[in-house]
Specification:
Chain lengths: 70, 146
């Protein structure tokens, strides 16, 4: 693997881990019952964060894959 | 009352860890401190003396977390404070360079945890480190009790 390819691979790995961390974190917490003791505003914030991270992850993947006209 | 400092430049990552710590419940009395950059965290560590520090590595600079842990470990009173690297940098050793894990542990981190974090594992790890009890209803959801 060339040095350039390695840099791209490291960047992609980092980006996937960061994005997945936020999403998996919130889903794991949801399953563990994190929303049980939240008030309505906190529940709303929690759900909005899931949606926002999902959208952001989708955009990241769509840009990196579809922009290559494949 | 255990104090936990979360250091990460992204609010979204801090939010996940804060919400995780809330699972211990109000009786556990976990006090959560936050910092969004390495430099600020040094000040908080010195004044607040947290019992556990969860620190990102790549923040305002590529190796902010590593720089902070090196500074903190030079202070005798913080030689044994648990400082865990919580990072998305997870490269193996290559081309004569150390792996990210080796770099973190050599700098002075006591644990190296890669993102994405499994929240159940993290909860158990924190409970063990701070001597905290995981509420029964959470344990059941983790499949740890009947």
């Amino acid at each position: 693997m060339s040095k350039r390819e390695k840099i791209y691979m490291e960047e992609a790995d980092f980006m996937l881990r960061e994005n997945m961390n936020r999403l998996k974190g919130l889903i794991d917490l949801l399953v563990l019952g994190a929303m049980d003791d939240m008030d309505e505003d906190e529940k709303e914030e929690f759900l909005q964060k899931i949606k926002s991270h999902m959208d952001s992850f989708f955009d990241t993947i769509e840009e990196s894959i579809l922009s290559n006209d494949q | 009352m255990p104090k936990v400092l979360i250091v990460d430049d992204l609010e979204s990552n801090r939010y996940v860890l804060k919400t995780l710590l809330r699972l211990f419940g109000p009786k556990a009395g976990v006090e959560i401190l936050e910092a969004s950059e390495g430099v600020k965290s040094v000040e908080i560590i010195r004044t607040e003396r947290p019992d556990l520090i969860l620190m990102d590595v790549k923040m305002e600079r590529e190796d902010s977390g590593i720089e902070v842990v090196k500074v903190i470990r030079t202070l005798p009173e913080f030689r044994d404070t648990p400082i865990w690297a919580v990072t998305a940098q997870a490269m193996d050793a290559h081309d004569g360079m150390e792996s990210d894990r080796e770099r973190c542990l050599r700098a002075g981190f006591s644990e190296y945890i890669t993102k994405p974090i499994n929240q159940s594992d993290m909860l158990q790890k924190i409970a063990a480190a701070l001597g905290l009890h995981i509420p029964e209803k959470i344990k059941r959801r983790m499949g740890l009790s009947s």
